[in-house]
Amino acid sequence: MTSGIARAQKAFRAFRGRRWGGATAVLIAIVGLEYGLPYPLLNPDEQTIVPRAWTMVHGGGPDPHWFNYPTLVMYLLAPFQAWHADPSYLDARILIALLGVGAVAATWWLGLRAYGVVAAAVGAAVVAVETTHVAYSHMAVTDIPLTLGIAAALALMVSGRIELAGLASGLAMGAKWPGVLLVVPLLVAGWRRWRSLGTAVLLGVVAFLATSPFVLVDLHKAFSDAWSTQSIHHTGWLGFEHDGISLVGFLHRLWGGMGPVLAVAALGLAVAVFARRRSDLILASFVLVYFLNLLTLKSHFDRFVLPLVLPLGVLAGRVRVLAPVAALLLVFPLVWSIQKDVRLTKTDTRIVARAWIEEHLPRGARVAAESSTPPLQGFDVLPLQLPGPGRRFDPNRDVRRLRRDGVHYVLVTGVVANRVLAARSSYPAEARFYDDLARRTHRAYYVQAGGGLAGPWVAVYRL
To answer: Are 157 and 165 in contact (CB under 8 A)?
Structure first.
């Protein structure tokens, strides 16, 4: 295994050296933007978004033919893919990281306009260290652009610039569908200013369609993709079977990102609801409607709470006497974020596993592979479908069937296996598959995090 780690790390350094030099390479490695590269191992959505952005500027045109997300983020990423022969996840991550910094600045602006400099400082500090925001600022996905759009829209609302707030709301929705919920605070901000409100809504629609024009061209597919994406999360996802009700699940995600400063933010929200000033009503209406929407979901992903972090951070600074307490409590998410960033400077276990596979498995061998495993070139790969609530059992998750179909090896990872085995009663057939691999096959390779490695355990079984 040591030689495999050495080869993977050598390839990683060579890749970094080709793209960046000297101090720049060190800086990027420190913040963890190169984690898992050249493979999108930080988040599965990267491998659906970045290649589509790359295709747009390499002959594919602006129509993504895919609307699980609107297209604004792909349009933002596309120009930076033009000079690459293959999709560049690093360039995409750098852009998202810059947008993450922009979200911190937009939160300062929101706090300043809502309650003054103290709330601005506390809000910006919360966003800067909150673990989920820091984590997703490393990933070329849609969540940070949505967060930035929400911060800008709310800041314009509390500033009384209703028309521009509508424009920003349309851009936020162009990043990700939940941006549509900004219509509620927009209505609050524009109450009795009907002409301005009407203009704001019109500008929002124009902004959305300008950044996702093919929604109109293929309206049926756009609606179908968007509805399907939302429906999946109303059904649930692998790994959340023991979360309990959504209220508990999402409060846990908020606490995991903000730590005890969440209690100060909750107090600030209560004061805002009681005081009912204009800024209070705008921020509270968004927080409440967005959180109520979360309660309808059974997938409790941490990224879903990101839009709440910005207004909650500002509300944590609303009561000035508690602002020093909030600032002191930020040491918790700061430490958590640093710990996670340190892990991102290590080599992913899946990179090492891929190096071992390429050296030890015969080229062309048939390999059954789970999702969240390293991509394999030169092998006949049979994808194993991800289990989940409401999903049909994948018949290929059967050792006898795989042998009968000429599969030679099975590649599995703790990203999937640990979640299945933790919810064995919900996935008895899938759990039996892992049991059969352990009892009836030979484990040819195994690697787990430790030392210079981070990531899930990875195993290769020989059939």
So the answer is: yes
Tokens for 211? 């950044």
Rounded to two decimals, what is the model's pTM?
A: 0.90
- Nearest CA to 122 out of 332, 261, 316 is that of 316
The answer to whether 75 and 181 have CB atoms below 8 angstroms apart is no
- The rounded percent of the chain whose pLDDT value lies above 90 is 81
Give the tens place of pLDDT for each residue, 16-71.
444 444 444 444 444 678 888 888 888 889 999 999 999 999 999 999 999 999 99
The rounded distance, in Å, linking the Cα atoms of 408 and 372 is: 20
Examine the pLDDT at 151 and tell me if it is beyond 90.
Answer: yes
CA distance 334 to 323: 17
Distances (CA, A) of 256 to 12, 42, 261, 311: 31, 19, 11, 17
Q: How many CB atoms lie within 10 A of CB 353?
A: 27
Alpha helix ranges (H) inside 21-178: 22-31, 46-55, 72-77, 89-114, 117-129, 131-136, 143-158, 162-175
Question: CA-CA distance, 244 to 392, in Å (whole number)?
Answer: 23
Supply 20's token pair.
């960046």
The one-letter code for the residue type at 449 is A
Residue pair 360/17 in contact (Cβ under 8 Å)? The answer is no
Nearest to 43 by CA among 133, 132, 138, 129: 138
Q: Say how far apart CA 152 and CA 436 lie, in whole Å.
A: 53
Judged by average pLDDT, the poorest of 1-15, 164-178, 290-304 is 1-15
Amino acid at 244: G
Strand partners, 462: 409, 442
At a CB cut-off of 8 Å and minimum separation 6, what does 343 contact? 32, 454
* pLDDT tens track for 345-355: 899 999 999 99
Digit-coded pLDDT (tens) for 167-214: 999 999 999 999 999 999 999 999 999 999 999 999 999 999 999 999
In the chain, the N- to C-terminal Cα span, in Å, equals 21
CA–CA separation, 409 vs 403, rounded Å?
9
| Residue found by looking up tokens 């002959």 in the block | 59
Going along 244-379, which residue ranges are E strands? 347-348, 366-370
Angle at 46 between CA 311 and CA 385, to 5 degrees: 115
User: Cβ-count burial of 341 within 10 angstroms (0-12 exposed, 13-18 middle, 19+ buried)?
Assistant: middle
Residue whose structure tokens are 């306009």: 113
Separation CA 127–CA 146 (nearest Å): 14
> Which CA distances in Å does 377 have to 11, 211, 403?
16, 35, 21
Whether the per-residue pLDDT at 12 is higher than 50: the answer is no
